[in-house]
Amino acid sequence: MRDSDRFERMPKNPYWHDKGGHYEVCLGETRYLDQGGHHTRTPLWIRDKRTGKTVKRIGDGHQMGNWHPVWINWKGKKIQVEKLLDQGA
Q1: How far is CA 85 from CA 1, 28, 54, in A?
Q2: Is 57 left (phi over 0), alpha (psi -120 to 50) or beta?
Q3: How far apart are alpha carbons 40 and 60 in whole angstroms?
Q4: Which of 54, 53, 37, 46 has the alpha carbon at shortest distance from 82?
Q5: Distance of alpha carbon 58 from the chain centroid
Q6: What is the pLDDT of residues 10-47, one digit of tens each?
Q7: Among 61, 69, 83, 86, which residue's beta carbon has the most beta carbons within 10 A?
Q8: 62-79 in b/e burial notation, b at 16+ Cβ within 10 A?
Q9: Percent of all residues in the chain with a pLDDT value above 90, rounded to a whole number
């Protein structure tokens, strides 16, 4: 992990993605790790709507056909960000 990944600030005008669940997610600037754009790293901030706490994670994305899921390490498990947004809905 690069220092710029660790200390990147939240975007000035963040857009919080919300599906009505327990968490909201704000995506940062996506970085492509290969020339074709099949493997990406994305900083994201996760806000717990009940407590108001915000944590930062680095998402790992992989292109699969026309779908590009992003995985994060959340509470010791590797999960997709979409599934995190559905939790508690």
Answers
A1: 25, 16, 14
A2: beta
A3: 6
A4: 46
A5: 6
A6: 777 778 888 888 999 998 888 888 888 789 999 999 99
A7: 61
A8: eeeeeeeebbbebeeeee
A9: 42
Q: Residue 89 above 60 pLDDT? A: no
Max Cα distance, the chain (Å): 40
Q: What values do phi and psi take at 4, rounded to 5? A: -65, -30
What pTM value is reported for the model? 0.79
Query: H-helix or E-strand containing 31?
Result: strand 31-32
Q: Collect all residues with Cβ–Cβ distance below 8 Å to 55 and sequence separation of at least 6.
A: 45, 46
Residue 60 has pLDDT above 90, yes or no: yes
How many other C-beta atoms lie within 10 A of the C-beta of residue 85?
19
Residue 70: per-residue pLDDT: 92
